[in-house]
Amino acid sequence: MNSRRQFLRSAAATAGALGLSRFSGLAAAAAESKIEILLNETRGIISPNIYSHFTEHLGGVIYDGIWVGSDSKVPNVFGIRRDLVEHLKKIKAPVIRYPGGCFADSYDWRDGVGPVEKRPRRTNFWAFSEKSPAIHRYEPNFFGTDEFMRFCKLAGAEPYLAANVRSLPAEEFDRWVEYCNSPKGSTTLADMRAAAGSPDPYNVHYWGVGNESWGCGGDQTPQEYSAAFRRFTAWVPGYGQQLNFIGSGPNGDDLNWTRGFFESIRQKEEDLFGKIYGWGLHHYAWNLSMGRTSDWDKGKGDAVQFSTGEWYELLHEGLRLEPMIDSHWQAMGEFDTQHRVKLIVDEWGPWYRPGSEATPGDILEQMPTLRDAVFSGMTLDLLNRHANQVAMGNCAQLINCLNSLYLAHEDRFVITPVGHVFDLYSGHQGAQSIRAVFSAPEVSYDRNGTPTPLPSLMGSASVRGKELLLTVVNADVTQAHETQVSLGSAGVASASARILTNTDIHAHNTFAQPDAVAPQSREISASGSDFTHVFPPASVTSLALRLR
Ligand code: AHR
Question: How far is it, in rounded angstroms, from Cα 461 to Cα 431?
């Protein structure tokens, strides 16, 4: 039976249309659905960082995706793809995680600093596919810490660096922090940074301590990892900055890992919880077999060719994140009773089998469709609803890999349906999450002979002063849902909607057809405290309401 752990181990070893026509012909049952927005029931401020990203030296993410080189014909800023930077600014990208993923635990940060011509070439962790171009297999280190910092600065995002716990000593972690954060002119490494163009420190606040330490990050037990975590994070000089350490969380929803780590930290010293900023959760929806297998390869589905049942199954798998958050939060609280440690969902997204790559040879690249947009909206809503527990979310990954917001190859660049969702949802960043109660008919699909329900409408709401943002996915592939939106005693002064849908649930954006799935805007006539809105089938909607 293949598992994700085995997959990673083997990798290491081998080193348009709005869709209105579709639902206008269907009778939307008269306001059979209701969304009640409870303005007084707050759930906490939505950390902007929930809308963060993840980039890894993997396939076409760095080389071709982000980095094109300063002598490239592709429009670039200091070698970084200009289109990407512009779009990241538009969606207000808060944090970007780097350099992995599994790559992080095989990476020596020193390989990626200093004069480019002196940087070594190394075997990439993800070097197993002979179809990949050499630059993806044999890491040239053209892009390292300084290039990443420049990328973050251009995009207006904060860096989140993941340290190598598996194959470097703790001393090297101290040194990486020193390289990034020691004051101008203070140390040899600060001078080296200055020579690379940045006399001023980068002031990196987010530091991951390993990645998937139960697997590619060292095959550790939770107790071993706890010891390594403590060693890596003890007395690291802060250079006046708060260092937010993020621990490597479980394999899937393995509560033993979380309990083992937290128990072992408490055994040493309860106060240590005050030094742990976040606990990582990774959630990939990869098994579309309807429960027939748990084989990592056999369970996967196709990114573009899928049945209606597989549409629902992907969302069903995505929703597993909610009980994962709840159960891990509870388990953490058994030891960290004050809940000082927050959750960081630093990898999430669907994971399909190979075959839909926009650029053949880019490993783990897949073609995001409307299904992935609905999945992504649903996930971001879920994170918004857990604003009190989740301090950061990082979609895996930003470009040319898994749930990409963007696809790029040479001079071609396209925003995927997932990228549009981040745009539609960006108004939630930093707003107050409020409770919204959804009542809508469920859809039912055949899950290997068992009729299985799934909510049709799901979403979240937030408020900032007089601005209210309600985001809603309609998972139902056939039925529009006419919905009464009720705001209690508050009144609406004006409202507008942005809607992402298509008549074809498989629709996706390609280099040749970049706008097959693009948001459309509509003014809404809404006044008073209730109004009716029709959510098209298979859609993501963002409703911006101005309150009286
Ligand atoms: O995102 C791809 C890989 O998935 C990451 O490198 C790893 O952390 C996870 O297993």
Answer: 9
Q: Whose C-alpha lies nearest to ligand 1, atom 7?
A: 101
207-244 b/e (C-beta count within 10 Å ≥ 16 → b): bbbbbbbbbbbbebbbebbbebbbebbeebeebeeebb
- pLDDT over 70 for what percent of the chain? 95
**Residue 40 three-state SS:** strand
Nearest partner of 541 among 452, 463, 475, judged by Cα: 475
CA dihedral 174, 180, 185, 187 (to 10 degrees): 20
Give the position of tokens 């280190």: 141
Residue whose entry in the numeric block shows the structure tokens 């001023």: 200
More confident residue, 28 or 176: 176
Q: Whose CA is nearest to atom 6 of ligand 1?
A: 101
Average pLDDT over the chain, rounded to an integer: 94
Ligand 1 close to Cβ of residue 347 (< 6 A)? yes
User: Is there a catalytic annotation at residue 224?
Assistant: no
Q: DSSP letters along 438-451, please?
A: EE-PEEEEEETTEE
> Quick check: 7 pLDDT over 60?
no
From the CB of 396, is ligand 1 less than 6 Å away? yes
Query: Which ligand 1 atom is nearest residue 126's CA?
Result: 6
**Residue pLDDT, tens place only, 512-533:** 999 999 999 998 988 889 999 9
Termini Cα distance of the chain: 59
Q: Is the pLDDT of residue 298 over 80?
A: yes
CB 382 within 8 A of CB 322: yes
- Ligand 1, atom 9, lies closest to the CA of 101
Ligand 1 centroid – CA 346 distance (Å): 10
- 250's tokens: 């479980």
Atom of ligand 1 nearest to the CA of 102: 6
- Of 83, 276, 113, residue with least CA distance to 192: 113
Could you tell me if the CB of 212 is within 6 A of ligand 1?
A: yes
Name the residue at shortest CA distance from atom 4 of ligand 1.
Answer: 101
What are the structure tokens assigned to 14, written together? 């081998």
Task: Indicate whether residue 365 lines ligand 1 (CB < 6 A).
Answer: no
Angle among Cα 433, 33, 456 to the nearest 5 degrees reads 75
Both tokens of residue 480?
A: 């529009």
**Are the CB atoms for 367 and 355 separated by under 8 Å?**
no
Ligand 1 pocket: which of 105, 251, 282 to mutate (most atoms within 8 A of CB): 282
Instruction: Scan for tokens 């008269």, then name that residue.
Output: 30
Is 325 touching ligand 1 by the criterion CB < 6 Å? Answer: no
pLDDT at residue 390 tops 60: yes
The single-letter DSSP state of residue 121 is P
